[in-house]
Design a protein that fits this description.
Elements: H1 7-23, H2 29-36, H3 41-53, E1 57-59, E2 67-69, E3 78-84, E4 99-106, E5 116-119, E6 135-139, E7 149-154, E8 157-166, E9 169-173, E10 182-184, E11 190-200
Helix pairs in contact: 1-3, 2-3
């Protein structure tokens, strides 16, 4: 397995990945030097040699951008999935201006092209395996039926619950004995945002959205 990287090596490696994803080609040594405020191009070259020696990249020193990321295939069979940080009252779907970033996902895990992520808040669905801080993948084009886990908008709040109908009343049921079901009447400001079709759970404490915002690379 590849050797562990130093903190600076890790930052340079992530920069190589992010730059390639944004530009379809690798940065030059001078561009890396400017990014990390390194005065000597030899220092950058030494960092790249270390990444190569540790099994993260391959280099062709006859080319100015001759770096190949080992195991990297983000250009194929993947799709950027938008993550939305909030919802708004009266809107049937999240608004483009509330898109915080994209999370790139292997297309084999996506049931449709219109999927997006919201973040689970609280433990109301712990009984069905959805925990606070999980990123739930939603399909807005899937037909929600009783028993499905859905994300719903109530006013300007989003909630993840199990969908049930009782006559004309929509019931949003939690999977936690400590919480009550939510009954939604015909006049309530309510919308189904999507049917849950996947979940991603980080096992470490990180920034609120540990992914790269649009058009930016990690420093």
């Amino acid at each position: 397995m590849p050797e562990p990287l130093t903190q600076l090596e890790q930052r340079v490696y992530h920069y190589l990945i992010d730059f390639l994803a944004a530009n379809t080609y690798q940065p030059s040594i001078r561009e890396i030097a400017r990014k990390f405020r390194i005065k000597s191009t030899k220092t950058v070259s030494d960092l790249l040699h270390a990444l190569e020696a540790k099994g993260y990249i391959e280099r062709d020193e006859s080319r100015s951008r001759g770096v190949r990321l080992l195991g990297f295939a983000a250009a194929g069979n993947t799709q950027p999935v938008p993550y939305y940080g909030r919802v708004h009252a009266g809107e049937p779907t999240p608004r483009a201006e509330d898109r915080e970033c994209y999370i790139t996902v292997d297309r084999r895990f996506l049931p449709s092209g219109d999927v997006y992520f919201l973040k689970v808040r609280g433990e109301s669905m712990a009984g069905r395996g959805l925990l606070d801080g999980d990123y739930v993948l939603l399909s807005p084009s899937a037909l929600a039926k009783d028993g499905d886990i859905i994300a719903a908008r109530l006013g300007d709040e989003a909630t993840v619950k199990t969908l049930t109908h009782r006559g004309a009343t929509v019931v949003l049921e939690p999977a936690n004995v400590g919480e009550r079901a939510i009954e939604v009447g015909p006049r309530d400001d309510f919308a189904v945002l999507g049917v849950a079709c996947g979940v991603f759970r980080p096992f470490w404490e990180e920034d609120p959205v540990p992914v790269i915002p649009e058009g930016e690379a990690n420093d």
